[in-house]
């Protein structure tokens, strides 16, 4: 594509050099630049990309998009200056890859918890309806049935448009994606055309990045503020921030609720560890999920499918066949008669929801033992809150390591324990080694009890001092129980943390 064409999507403050060069690629990583590429110098949270302009030129960049022009300018290279490369890069990437989101029905899901479940279930549902679909999620992206590994909940704008472009090439009609607060704040989804958006809920998370809850909430709200008039905005009426999210949107607003009047409603008829019977908009349906929060998730899926024009009965039939995402309230039965549940809950609210779901099924007929920790180099403020939530709804709690990253695991545990009083501490022990913590919980459990192993869910590693070591809660439990590890379904690996 000619550089001149690429610049139509942005408003440069100055252009130094010619604009008729053929651009063969767009990069924000100087190491990936090749001959004829446009290098975008981003002022990131860790490193300023402007430092790597000389390296990008050395690699063959024929044009540079930047906020600050370098003092020394290479001959034959065009420099485009803009007020914000963060604002510009999405529009440039969208143009370069042929505006792929315009050729798909793209639905974004945002909120603290539930993004992965809703996006993945929509992907699985529409594939069962016979459509080719794409999924953009934390660990695995899918182009129809092809899995593409991912490092972030939402990729950078260039990778994002490249993946969407491949979906179009593969004949995909729909795409479902998680939209994280980081991605919205950093304009990673800038330039994309959404058919619809879904809000799940909002609780404390990522304050290490956003600093305040208001900033975090506003990042989520910005997604709905940017939806076009032709789109739909589905919001959770049961969340106190649900209507705030959509108060300034131009999109058609629809609500869902399990507690009050709404456009889409559901209630629980019956619940077991194997699943639930629900009433959704006057229709009874059996589903393979448990917990009130999963009723909300399933209702959001139902609402989105309805807004995409699908038949209610077909939606409910397929909904009854869908399975939980890997590491989301996933039960593993012990031969000794107790149940272990692996769940990704890594926020106070998520932990509260999962434990509430377990108690809804137990109905006072067994004890709950919770194994949990907190991630290193993340929001310190939620650590004592995590411990408090675990103690409130558990008979015994084992505080252990999650992903300590570059922190001392014991220091993280101490932060969690600092939120507990002397009486609460009587329920708690701490074991730094996560495998030993899970083994200890299994030794404590009796027939009819439930062990919740929280925090890592689908993850098959522990990150320690910058190195990812293989570790899988499912494998540890199955090893203890002496049972084989089953293979996972196609889209079961995608989650958000």
Automatic annotation (TrEMBL):
Meso-2,6-diaminopimelate binds at residues 378, 402-405, 455, 459. Keywords: ATP-binding, Cell cycle, Cell division, Cell shape, Cell wall biogenesis/degradation, Cytoplasm, Ligase, Magnesium, Nucleotide-binding, Peptidoglycan synthesis. A motif (Meso-diaminopimelate recognition motif) lies at residues 402-405. Pathway: Cell wall biogenesis; peptidoglycan biosynthesis. GO terms for molecular function: ATP binding; magnesium ion binding; UDP-N-acetylmuramoylalanyl-D-glutamate-2,6-diaminopimelate ligase activity. Its EC number is 6.3.2.13. It catalyses: UDP-N-acetyl-alpha-D-muramoyl-L-alanyl-D-glutamate + meso-2,6-diaminopimelate + ATP = UDP-N-acetyl-alpha-D-muramoyl-L-alanyl-gamma-D-glutamyl-meso-2,6-diaminopimelate + ADP + phosphate + H(+). It holds the Pfam family Mur_ligase_M. Its cofactor is Mg(2+). It comes from the Bacteria. The keyword Lipid metabolism does not apply. Catalyzes the addition of meso-diaminopimelic acid to the nucleotide precursor UDP-N-acetylmuramoyl-L-alanyl-D-glutamate (UMAG) in the biosynthesis of bacterial cell-wall peptidoglycan. The modification N6-carboxylysine is found at residue 220. Signal peptide: none annotated. UDP-N-acetyl-alpha-D-muramoyl-L-alanyl-D-glutamate binds at residues 30, 153-154, 180, 186, 188. It comes from Hallella mizrahii. Residues 327-457 form the Mur ligase C-terminal domain. It is found in: Cytoplasm. Residues 109-305 form the Mur ligase central domain. It is an enzyme of class 6 (ligase). This is UDP-N-acetylmuramoyl-L-alanyl-D-glutamate--2,6-diaminopimelate ligase. GO terms for biological process: cell division; cell wall organization; peptidoglycan biosynthetic process; regulation of cell shape. Belongs to the MurCDEF family. MurE subfamily. GO terms for cellular component: cytoplasm. Residues 23-97 form the Mur ligase N-terminal catalytic domain.
């Amino acid at each position: 594509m000619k550089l001149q064409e690429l610049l139509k999507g942005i408003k440069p403050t100055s252009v130094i050099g010619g604009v008729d060069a053929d651009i063969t690629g767009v990069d924000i990583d100087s190491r990936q630049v090749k001959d004829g590429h446009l290098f975008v110098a981003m002022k990131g949270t860790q490193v300023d990309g402007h430092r790597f302009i000389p390296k990008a030129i050395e690699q063959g960049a024929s044009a540079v998009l930047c906020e600050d022009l370098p003092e020394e300018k290479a001959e034959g290279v065009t420099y485009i200056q803009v007020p914000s490369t963060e604002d510009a890069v999405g529009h440039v990437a969208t143009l370069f890859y042929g505006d792929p989101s315009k050729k798909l029905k793209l639905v974004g899901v945002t909120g603290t918890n539930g993004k992965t479940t809703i996006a993945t279930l929509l992907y699985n549902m529409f594939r069962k309806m016979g459509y080719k679909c794409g999924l953009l999620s934390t660990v695995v992206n899918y182009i129809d049935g092809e899995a593409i590994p991912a490092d972030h909940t939402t990729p950078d704008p260039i990778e994002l448009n490249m993946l969407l472009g491949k979906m179009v090439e593969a004949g995909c009609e729909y795409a479902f994606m998680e939209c994280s607060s980081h991605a919205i704040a950093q304009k990673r989804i800038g330039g994309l055309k959404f058919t619809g958006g879904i809000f799940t809920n909002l609780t404390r998370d990522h304050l290490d990045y956003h600093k305040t809850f208001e900033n975090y909430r506003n990042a989520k709200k910005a997604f709905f503020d940017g939806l076009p008039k032709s789109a739909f905005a589905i919001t959770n009426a049961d969340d106190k921030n649900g209507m705030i999210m959509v108060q300034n949107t131009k999109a058609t607003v629809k609500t869902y609720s399990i507690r009050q009047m709404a456009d889409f409603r559901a209630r629980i008829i019956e619940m077991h560890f194997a699943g639930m019977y629900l009433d959704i908009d006057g229709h009874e349906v059996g589903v393979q999920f448990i917990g009130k929060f999963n009723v909300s998730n399933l209702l959001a899926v139902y609402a989105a499918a309805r807004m995409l024009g699908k038949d209610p009965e077909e939606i409910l039939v397929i909904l009854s066949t869908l399975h939980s995402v890997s590491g989301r309230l996933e039960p593993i039965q012990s031969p000794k008669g107790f149940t272990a549940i692996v769940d990704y809950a890594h926020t106070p609210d998520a932990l509260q929801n999962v434990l509430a779901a377990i108690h809804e099924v137990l109905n006072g007929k067994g004890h709950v033992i919770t194994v949990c920790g907190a991630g290193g180099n993340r929001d310190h403020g939620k650590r004592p809150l995590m411990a408090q939530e675990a103690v409130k709804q558990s008979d015994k709690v084992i505080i252990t390591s999650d992903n300590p990253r570059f922190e001392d695991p014991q220091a993280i545990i101490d932060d969690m324990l600092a939120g507990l009083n002397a009486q609460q501490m009587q329920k708690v022990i701490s074991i730094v080694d996560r495998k030993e913590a899970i083994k200890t919980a299994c030794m404590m459990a009796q027939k009819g009890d439930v062990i919740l192993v929280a925090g890592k869910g689908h993850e098959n590693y522990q990150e320690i001092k910058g190195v990812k070591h293989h570790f899988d809660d499912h494998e540890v439990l199955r090893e203890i129980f002496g049972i084989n590890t089953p293979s996972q379904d196609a889209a079961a690996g995608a989650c958000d943390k």
